Amino acid sequence: MPVIRHLYFHIPFCPKLCPYCSFYVETGSKNKTTAFLDALLREVELAKAGHDLRPQTIYFGGGTPSALTGEQLEYLLGGLRARLDFSGLTEWTFEVNPATVRAEKARLLKGAGVTRISLGVQSWDDALLKTLGRVHDAAQAEETFVTLRGAGFDNINIDLMFAVPGQSLTQWEATLAKTIALRPEHVSSYCLTYEEDTAYFRQLQLGTFRQDDERDATLFEMTMDALPAAGFAQYEISNYARPGRESAHNNAYWLGADYLGFGPSAFSTVCLRRWQALPDTAEYTRRILAGESVEHFVEELSPATRAGEIAAFAVRTREGIAGRDLARWPGMMEEFAALGFLEKRGDRVVLTRRGKMMADSVAEAFV
Q: Which CATH number fits domain 3-254: 3.20.20.70, 3.60.21.10, 3.40.50.360, 3.40.50.720?
């Protein structure tokens, strides 16, 4: 029976669908929530029959996990504690939308054992927040950050997004400065991508939005300069942390650890088997409570494919890849070193600053 130390829970409910979001989410689902929570807890029980669950990290994402009411959170988090051994848990991350947390809920999360918050700010500019379709404004986001600090959270990530349509260099500079001034422990800074089946992708096709690769590269370089100068180490292309505050859960993914995902649309990877749960909350709930499988997609990975995936993740990190592991890809080091993308650092191979600008292309070469 495989030991699983990393668990992900997908809470699909959102107060509003953001136009750039490609995750499985749904709005206006209050009538489904109670049965869904029962199904989520039941799925954990079913997983224990085939896996030895000893969580070291737990991550609640979505969707908007913080959209659950206090009563619902008490039911769900208490139910998990009753079903899982938390004695080895070192990190429990909970994604928070600034519009959905007040002091009482923040205290509830802290009291339940959540150790880390990921706050979805995206921008400190109200005009850009409207462009992104967010339901909070900058003042509300700052108030929520202060509230979380007041509840005792000493490990907070601030999620940011750059390359937003219409975003100027000045706006991004101000957002970075504001973030640094708040002194979070971690910053995730993602370049907006236009995913298919989103409103933003349709706007891109219509020509309403236009991508500007040169501007986006400048915004990325500004980030790589400003955050490290303020004490944040860039330990992965999009992630910056103060010493010792790196995301243990995400690091587990990047190192190729086995993990289980719970909830509609959630992925799991154990050994060389990967599967995804049905991306339909109502049908997911019905099947789980009826004792039926919710597997929607299953993939059997070859050892070579899995090794390539792990290398693709590793090359994006500060530690890079062990030089000996590159033997699987003859000529890779020479090719990318000649382009100025990779360099040797001891017995490791890592991205150069120029290589970080081309990280996606370098990573794709391994898969």
A: 3.20.20.70
